[in-house]
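Notes from the 1:1 (GR / supervisor)

We went over the backlog. Supervisor wanted to see one worked example end to end before approving the batch request, so GR pasted a single chain during the call. The sequence is below; no edits were made to it. Supervisor asked that the structure be written out right there so they could see what the output format looks like.
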Amino acid sequence: MKTIAARILDQMKIPYEIRTYEWSEEEMDAVSVARKIGLPPEQVFKTLVVRGDRTGVLVASIPGNAELDLKRLAAVSGNKKVEMVPVKEIQGLTGYIRGGVSPLGMKKQYPYYLDQTAEIVERLAVSAGQRGLQLILSGPDLIRATGAKLADIAR
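Structure output shown during the call:
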């Protein structure tokens, strides 16, 4: 079964691989996912939904072994401050559930910020839009597919 995110890549003729893994509520963090799909944590990007005080909802992806730098994201997105969206709001905003948020194919197109390290990563993983599925593609291809704004947003 292809997810919306995979279909978008197909339409754009962007090469990718789908990796499946066993998921559990206790191990949905990017480091656990990296271990399960055989990639280093810095190549498994987690996608986070945040809300800015001026721009509203925006999305950011950062390496799995890093934390989102809220101050830097606020600065590059034109906000004074940004904060994580409560988990209970994620599905309504994106169409995805926690642990399965893909930067591709959300219900609405939000501004998307990608940590600048993605630009040089030959193989990275992002959620395919479903728990237990990851898309593996090149950083430049992810940037092209999403129209991401690159920024130094991880620490």
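Supervisor's comment: DSSP finds five helices and eight strands in the chain.
Batch request approved.
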